[in-house]
């Protein structure tokens, strides 16, 4: 995979082990130099860096830092600039995990959760954004959230969930604030990955790690959220709209189309759910996803007075049960799904249904 990261520089917090180290490996695989900023003893972080250098031939920097300390955060970027002269990616991976039962949690523990996961992420973003401004160019930030920020976990863990909920809200709104300046901000929601950090939970599959890591990097190079008036963000199934049609639309209207694709309703829904629908102006869900997304507030009502060709749609395809009066959706395509069978290879009685 070439993600155009060669010789660029990524800062990864908590990159010394677990998911963070896996993320470092993927950056390194792409030829991107890596700065690991980790709370762990510096020998451990240096060892992780040495392995990356040996395996991938990249340059690295190990920094001992606690991201909840403003001083340490500034030092991470000072040392990064000193060694590499630039920084392109910030992967906010470090976060505090562990059991935090509401009955036993202490104010100190609550504050520590908040300081590491919320304040730490915010401070890292603040310094990175300042550097992007000083360098007069954009950059990419990816913040690590958790599914507990979106839905209730079987294990509870409300303190952890609350801090990740704060990171989710922060991520969405930071994207809105700095997206226009070419600083792309995304959040990722890893599934369960068996790391030392979750040793207190039951052991499950290791395989998830690589999958999540690939997803992280894919997200890291993709869209921002803040749009200018002359841009439209379209999220569609692959191969639904030919490139020429998009170019023609841009030429006729002067509106730039930011076009990204997906290959399943589930992928589209997950991405839109994470951003609360803020990333896209137009998406193309199948009918059975329209009602679900509308109920969850992920799509807005359509002002049909602006759709001058609405009256020309086939009456049989509008006003359907999933969206009466087409308040939230309009049909884009109609078709049937079929399975083709080569009769030569079939034996016995034919059945049709
Ligand atoms: N493992 C999972 O199943 C899972 C699921 C969802 C989200 N996450 C999130 O993914 C991230 C990484 O999880 P993991 O399982 O790899 O964790 P981990 O505990 O195995 O590794 C975390 C790393 O972060 C470092 N770190 C911790 N506090 C720090 C601080 N204040 N400053 C700098 N570095 C610090 C640690 O030294 C360690 O190297 C966390 O934000 C976690 O909440 C994990």
Short description:
This protein has nine helices and nine strands. The protein is 39% helix and 14% strand.
Report on this structure.
The chain is built from nine helices and nine strands. By secondary structure, the protein is an alpha/beta fold. Strands 3-2-1-4-5-6 form a six-stranded parallel sheet, sandwiched between helices. Strands 8-7-9 form a three-stranded parallel sheet. Strand 2, helix 2 and strand 3 form a beta-alpha-beta unit. Helix 1 crosses helix 6. The longest helix is centred in the middle third of the chain and has 29 residues. About 7% of the residues have low confidence. The structure holds nicotinamide-adenine-dinucleotide. Nicotinamide-adenine-dinucleotide binds next to helix 1 and helix 4.
How is the largest sheet built, in terms of strand order? 3-2-1-4-5-6
Silhouette = globular
The average pLDDT value, as a whole number, equals 85
What is the strand content? 5-15%
Query: Structural class, from helix and strand content?
Result: alpha/beta
**How many helices?**
9
Q: Tell me the span between the first and last alpha carbons.
A: 44 Å
| Count of DSSP strands | 9
Reading the helices and strands in chain order gives: EHEHEHEHEHEHEHEHEH
Helix content: 25-40%
Bound molecules: nicotinamide-adenine-dinucleotide
